Amino acid sequence: MNEKDIDKILNVWKTENTISIPNKKELLLDIVDQVATLFTVGSFYYYVLNFEDLKMEFVHSGVREVLGIEPADFVVNDIFKKMHPEDLEKMNEKEALVFDFFYNKITPDEIFLYKTVYMLRLKHANGQYKTLLHQVKVLSTSECGKIQQVLGIHVDIGYLNIPFNHKVSFISHQRPSYHSIEPGSILDLEKKCFKNLFSKREKEIIKKMSEGIKFNEIAKLLFLSPHTISAHKKNILRKSGCKNTPELIARCFIEGVI
Q1: How many CB atoms lie within 10 A of CB 116?
Q2: Around Cβ 186, how many Cβ atoms within 10 Å?
Q3: From CA 197, how far away is CA 189, in angstroms rounded?
Q4: Cβ contact 166:119 at 8 Å
Q5: What is d(CA 184, CA 77) in angstroms, rounded to the nearest whole number?
Q6: Contact between 17 and 144 (Cβ < 8 Å)
Q7: Residue 58 φ/ψ, nearest 5 degrees
Q8: Model's pTM, two decimal places?
Q9: CB-CB contact of 142 with 52 (8 Å)
Q10: Residue 171: what pLDDT?
Q11: 44-50/55-59 β-pairing
Q12: At what angle do helices 226-240 and 200-210 cross, to 10 degrees?
């Protein structure tokens, strides 16, 4: 573990998001649970982090299955210790990109309309790294306008064998979404609607593919012929610009199609 990389991350949080006047609103866990389950496919857990003191206000029991640890053991410093060295090294650049987006590229009213998405690897209690889809949504801001509480959702996507990358996306269903931005680059937003490339039927097929369902079974479930499903897949890959199914599923997860 590189302590300098951890210091870089904490410095980004401190310099970009210092909370001078905290918001004292009570956390409503039932609403948090409803929001978290909207962003999940497969094994997952979620947590609520308060940037005022960098403490977890809640950790979902799913962390036992995904990381093999107890919710009480999921704390900021230990998360850094479990992080893959390459991810830890890039984390400060990702977080700097996130704060630049929220504070300099959108209006304060839009902060609650976006979720941040990127890939992350954390070590399981058995010593193996888990590839997770890291999704974060702002729950509250402080009286001084800084991000205070965030909902983080970690979905285990290791079974998909997705090629790993460090790109960051900002997804919204009400505003333009911004996809696959390289950390460390100048944030020059290009508006793209990747999910609008696909028809309703194509999205259904993509979701079934992401669940590991074979073509013949997808055909039966959707009352289509295997030939039609194969034709749809070719069109989906062509539209997406992806070379194969794992790359397609990875991009669809990260960019909010599924």
Answers
A1: 21
A2: 8
A3: 19
A4: yes
A5: 23
A6: no
A7: -160, 140
A8: 0.76
A9: yes
A10: 85
A11: antiparallel
A12: 100
Residue 146 three-state SS: coil
Other CB atoms within 10 Å distance of the CB of residue 39: 19
Which pLDDT does position 33 carry in this prediction?
A: 53
| Alpha-carbon span 207 to 257, nearest angstrom | 9
pLDDT at 250: 77
Please say whether the beta carbons of 116 and 135 come within 8 A: yes
Q: What share of the chain is helix, strand, coil (3-state, %, to 5)?
A: 45, 20, 35
Cα–Cα distance for residue pair 21/143, rounded to 1 Å: 5
pLDDT at residue 78 in the model: 92
| Lookup: tokens for 85 | 């060295």
Residue showing tokens 């573990």: 1
- Residue 156, SS3? strand
- The H-or-E segment that residue 36 falls in is helix 29-37
Helix axes 226-240, 245-254, angle to 10 degrees: 60
Task: Going from the first residue of the chain to its last (258 residues), give the mean pLDDT of each consecutive group of 10, the final group possibly shorter.
Answer: 82 85 65 52 86 93 95 94 94 93 91 92 96 92 91 87 86 82 74 71 88 87 89 88 83 74
Question: Are the CB atoms for 181 and 118 separated by under 8 Å?
Answer: no
Res 41: pLDDT:
61
CA gap 24, 41 in Å, rounded:
32
**Tell me, what's the pLDDT at 86?**
95
Question: Residue 127: phi, psi to the nearest 5?
Answer: 95, -10
**What's the distance, CA 249 to chain centroid?**
14
Q: Measure the CA–CA gap between 112 and 126, rounded to whole angstroms.
A: 36
3-state DSSP call for residue 172? coil
